[in-house]
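Lest this sound abstract, we let one protein speak, letters for residues, whole numbers for local backbone shapes, and leave readers to judge:
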Amino acid sequence: TKYFCWAQVQLCFFVYIVIMPKSRRDRPVTLSKTKKQSRVRTDNLIREIQANLDKFKNLYVFTIDNMRNSKLKEVRTKWLDSRIFLGKKSVMMKAIGTTPSEEFKQNLHHITEFLVGSCGLLFTNRDNTEVVEFFKDYRVPEYARSGFVANKDIFLTEGPQTQFSHTLEPYLRKLGLPVVLREGVILLEKDTHICQIGNVLTPEQAKLLELYEHRLADFHITLRCWYDGHEVRKLSE
């Protein structure tokens, strides 16, 4: 009987293994397929950049200070007749060419000297004067994030903070403000600096600046150079 029961257990286990469907998580992923898809995307981006080089007469390299996706979207809507490209610098360099023998157009390889940091490409047929004037004046105030170097002293005077609901008192204390709740009103117990010029903002300071509606940063696009189809001209440091 003992051997018979053990045989039944083995048989049931075998049936379970054979019949039960495998989990999708157990299915192997072919790395070569993933690499192939990545390569296809890269090749498509390279072709897109080169197609735009043929389509538009002007190319600009730009950098963005205090990047915000919502603000960049606004810029795109103002330049619907142009093309803004953000992506990996290695892809841009591959499309443009880093040497005279590799460059897609005459003297274009010089533009790769400006592909440093957080940068992008602007393809347009608009006149250079219009392009430069637009981006020189286009600045949008934004709340600074953690790591931003403060460019102003922001000082709070002791007393009632009537702009806030009483429910925010524990949160303000957590952010480092010396506040108490008295008769349903938040009181700042002493004069306090949120930040001073030169401070590297902490996450707590950045949040306090937002709560007190102090925008220290500017979303701004800086044009670094311009290629007109023949030569590259430096526009800024």
